[in-house]
Structure prediction request, 169 residues.
Amino acid sequence: MNRNLIISDIEDICRQSGSKKTAVIENGEIKGAGESEADFHGICGELEITNTGKNMLLSGRVKAYAKAVCSRCLEEFSLEVSAEITEKFFRRDKTSSGGSLKKEKRQEEKSGVKEDEFSYSGFKLDMTEAIRQNLVVNMPFAAVCSESCKGLCSECGGSLNNGQCTCRE
Ligand SMILES: [Zn+2]
Ligand SMILES: [Zn+2]
Prediction:
C-alpha cells in the first residue's frame, strides 16, 4: 500500500480555513491505471495541503522514475519524470462512496462533487491519483535514454551506443 501517498490526518486543517499541512513523500510507488500506463517508483517530493475554505489545495513538486523504452535505441531505461502539482480536492461525504477517494462518477447529487474532480472524505486525503495523473502528463512523448544516445544502425539494427554494430568494421 501507498501509505505515504495518503494523508490520513487532516483533521486539524479541516477545522480551520487557511491552515496548511506538509506531506513528505519518500520512495513512493504507484501502479499504472491500466496495462499501457506507466508504473512509477522512487516518488519523492514535498507537497502542501491548504484548506482554502472551499476545498483542499494540494500543491508542490514531485519527482519519480518510470520504466521507459528509448525511442532511439529501444533499450529499456529508468526515466526521471517530475511534475508540478496544483490540484483541488473537494469533500465527499463518507456515505456517498465505497471509501474510494479516486476520481469517480458522481454517485450522489448532493455531494456536489463533479466527475472530474478529486475528492476526500473524513480526514483522509489520497494523493495517489492526483500525483499519478500529473506524472503521466509530464512523460515525454518520445523518451530517450540519453541525449547522446546514438540509436540503432540502419544497416544491421545493432545498437550504436555500445559497439554492437559490426557492419562498419
Ligand atoms: Zn537510447
Ligand atoms: Zn550496423
